[in-house]
Design a protein that fits this description.
The protein is mostly helical. It is built from four helices and no strands. The longest helix is centred in the N-terminal third of the chain and has 15 residues. This is Carrier domain-containing protein. It holds the Pfam family PP-binding.
Length: 80
């Protein structure tokens, strides 16, 4: 699987588990419009660290938080 597909799968899975209605998963979609809350993102980041073996947020201190789905994916792709 690719980093992108792992991330999008986690978005879908966590949204379902947390009873959230997930917005469109296009690169341009702002993360704020996905319908996920901070707990959902914490779960996603934790699971991605397990799946991908990297936590880019822990190693890129001071880096701006991704704003869109595409930026989030690239942030992980660059870390892996």
């Amino acid at each position: 699987m690719s980093v992108r597909s792992d991330i999008l799968d986690q978005f879908r899975q966590v949204a379902q588990e947390q009873d959230k209605r997930l917005g469109p998963l296009s690169d341009e979609t702002p993360l704020q419009e996905l319908g996920l809350d901070s707990l959902c993102f914490a779960i996603i980041v934790s699971r991605l660290e397990t799946v991908l073996g990297k936590d880019p947020f822990g190693t890129n201190e001071g880096a701006p938080f991704p704003v869109s789905v595409g930026e989030f994916v690239r942030f992980y792709e660059n870390a892996v």
